[in-house]
Amino acid sequence: MTSTQLKGKTALVTGSTSGIGLGIARALAAQGANILFNGFGDAGEIEKLQAGVAGEFGVRTAYHNADMSKPAEIEAMMAFAAEKFGGIDVLVNNAGIQHVANVDEFPVEKWDAIIAINLSSAFHTSRLALPRMKAQNWGRIINLASVHGLVGSAGKSAYVAAKHGLVGLTKVTALETAQTGVTANAICPGFVLTPLVQKQVDARASADGLSNEAAKKALLSEKQPSADFVTPEQLGELAVFLCSDAAAQVRGAAWNMDGGWAAQ
């Protein structure tokens, strides 16, 4: 794979100002894709991020602050992408939030927000990106589901429902585009060592008097047989593969990268 396989193409990665989304955005930029960032954060830091990626990989970058729970803001972002870059060729639906509580104690507003951001936003970006992708007979839709799109965990009803829904949406999108140059697939990560998760590791190490390594193992031990984290960079490389010609017949897959979690 050369570093120009996505040259001239534009990728929108939602929730890409940190963590998994940023890892995927960087991997796509390394292949020559222009990047439209989206997500929350300090305006100055986001500007630095944009400039850094543009300079490092020689691509164009832009940012849109659409709140992914609001369809009107998603529409504005897609219009911005059309104006700035001519449209979206690679769509990575990564934005997501989490809340943990049992079903009978789950706050209704949290349920609504998780379904909106983790599931409905991917429908809105997809419906708006597909006409151009189909017209040019090339496009890649990559939905960041989760191992929770394949299995359940107590306390995570909204997240699990949304991620299962995202896998279903992916399959339908893939079937509807099956005879075109557009593919749709889902990536289903297990535990990923993002800055947010590293904070959990640090807190656990401090509270239990463990080394950082021991705290990581403790966090992973219940779910992830490899006892090792998935990295944003590994997920980025999988996204690059799904964009490649080699993956032209990978359609409607829910590809778990989860250290063996779903194999149990």
TrEMBL record:
Pfam family for this entry, one: adh_short
Superkingdom of this protein's organism: Bacteria
Family indicated by similarity: Belongs to the short-chain dehydrogenases/reductases (SDR) family.
Domain Ketoreductase: 9-190
GO process annotations (BP): monocarboxylic acid metabolic process
EC main group: oxidoreductase
Gene Ontology MF term list: 3-hydroxybutyrate dehydrogenase activity
Swiss-Prot/TrEMBL keywords: Oxidoreductase
Entry EC number(s): 1.1.1.30
Gene3D superfamilies: NAD(P)-binding Rossmann-like Domain (3.40.50.720)
Source organism of this protein record: Pseudoduganella violacea
NCBIfam families: PHB_DH (TIGR01963), PRK12429.1 (NF009093)
Protein name as catalogued: 3-hydroxybutyrate dehydrogenase
InterPro entries (UniProt xref): 3-OHbutyrate_DH, KR_dom, NAD(P)-bd_dom_sf, Sc_DH/Rdtase_CS, SDR, SDR_fam
